[in-house]
Sequence to fold (779 residues):
Amino acid sequence: MERKTFRGGAHPPERKDRTSELPIEYVRSVKQVVVPVNQHFGPPIQPLVKVGDSVKRGQKIADAEGRMTVPVHAPISGVVKKIEPRLQPNNAEGPAIVIEPDGSDVVDFLPVLDAFSCTKDQALARIREAGIVGMGGAGFPAHVKLAPPPNKPIDVVIANAAECEPYLTIDERLLAERPGDVVDGMAILLKTLGVAKGVIGLEANKEHLVPLLSETIAERRREGQEISVIVLETKYPQGGEKMLITAITGKEVPSGGLPMDVGCVVQNVGTLAAVADAFNKGQPLIERGFTVTGGACKTPKNLVVPIGTLVSDLVPDTIQVDDENLARVVAGGPMMGPAVPSYAFPIQKNTSGVLLMDKAEARYFQEQPCIRCGRCMRACSCRLSPALLNEALNAGDLDAAEAIGVLDCIECGTCSFVCPSRIQLVQRFRIGKQLLRAKKQKEAQRAR
Amino acid sequence: MPANSLLLSSSPHVYSGVTTRRLMLSVIIALLPATVFGVVLYGLPALGVILTSVAASVLSEAGFRALLKRDIRIGDLSAVVTGLLLALIIPPSTPLWMVALGAVFAIVVAKEFFGGLGANPFNPALVGRAIMIMSFPAALTTWHSPFAPIADAYTTATPLNLLKMGQSLTDVASTVGASTPAGLYWNLLIGTRAGSIGESSVILLLAGAAFLLIMGVIAWVTPVFMLGSIALFSWILGVDPLVAVISGGAVLGAFFMATDYASTPMTPKGKAIFGIGAGLVTVLIRQFGGFPEGVTYGILIMNAFAPFLNKLRVPKYGFVKPAKPAKEGSR
Fold:
């Protein structure tokens, strides 16, 4: 059977076998949490607590007005010890609330809410109040995706279970262990949006989960909803939002547009489970799962920990590190995750993995001259011309870079992966995008 | 925890195993059957030409870059490819000093003057041959029958020479020991005919090309369009299209020269137009030019258009035609 997919892409080594069979381990007690205040894509929010305050598990501790904001909740019950700038997995410092446990474990969840009898506004408010952001990586506020303007009708909700990043297996485990919550989350989103069709898209390397998912869907069947599972080719970046939409619907998200422009809403399966928890248990997003693995990780695992848990606090009781051979630490997957200066960083709402790469994995290459082989152009899932883009940016020609489409680059890193000369293509495009945006801003100011 | 020994690079953190060196090695492997066959056809003189050309290419690249105090890149094997290709497109009887001169010119003038690997606008091996043909026209158009000792007394003509002189297919067939045009086809495919060292055996060249296509080293677009264009325009001008494709340097040029990375377009549309153009120029030179063969110039002339053909990009993902600009003051 020919599997659906998109044009371009590459096949990085999967390296998922060390963790794909391991059940999720739940870590409940930690010695502290360092909760970054801003974990969403949007304007900053403010802490609602002061140093010395006692907080309950699930209590809201940071929030602000504004459509694109998402609150943050206390992942454990305890005392606020500090509010200070801390290193986040994106390598920037941001305000963080440090909470130490008091051993009480008092819970302050939201009331349980039935998504199928409440109003749309109530449902959207619940998703926001529960602090839910896209857990696949970008941290986009979930409620914003669910409230498209009236001129953008949605006809399908897509659950992103592709998990195309090498090494990561947390989404796979979530589907295997909590399929009911994923399907419930999908049903809630379908109800909230008033959409009939839901699709769970996963890569062929997870095809063994299809019977379980189909069974779960059949058990929880609801009138007027049609949820299906689609198996896609195992190919990076199949889990990129645009590539997933194209593989499943055949449509392309217009340049500069959003999935809603082609009638789609895409949510990561972790986000769906979080939505189910927010309604069925009243539990805000205070914990998340991630995969910890890599050559320098002696104990590869799928873990669920309270948000804000420092990876270094899990060492050595939960995670054992081969410090001698540790050469690179990545927050997320190896294709898009940023390398961080140490593993003393907090797990955020959008942290899907922690890679402890050893010296053999974490190689670093000198750039060689471009031989113009065109591999990057065949691999680019956005059909850009990375080699020509690289030339334009090296020449400082931002206009040419824009014409080739640097702003359409989804920064998946496939071009750099395939380049036989190890040219830092996507790395340069990230800078190019910033330069181009800065230039446009300047021009806009001058025009005013 | 080792705080300062961690690598902090931007993602991605994994790389494919494909390297420039591996790509060049694939090309060398793909050329080996035709190279060995060349030595079988013409013996030691052919081997001498090949070794001289490769050695001169590698040494001149290393020497020139050392002179300029730049990094020596001969490890990427691109100079070996250039040297090998140059040897395969010249006659086996070419004096070795001419071969060395051509190779040095190809590497230093056509490649390194422009910045080295990946920066050369023209195919270095073809530039080397073009210079040699202009400088030593007699030596570069002296052909020998296969399996015969190479001495001036035994010079002959290539099938293309004969066709250009107006001979019929049957006449040409008789010169290669075949009695019918079908025999000529077979002969050309096998490659037991007079010609450059590595251009004659179409079957062995196609085997190498198939290897490169399967390995994803080259794309099919340029060779298919170039050979198609040679066949079409030859047929229009009344030449047997199959003979046009399988004689001369058409197959070697289409699969191994017109697919050169640096000097040809990277976009699919650009590749197609490049192929058509190179085929057309080849046929025009064969029919109306001063030389019996035109592949060299067909490709070199199209090389000049490559930067422009690169502008024919595939529309990007989600491309929307820009709307007409809003009228001033409407906002």
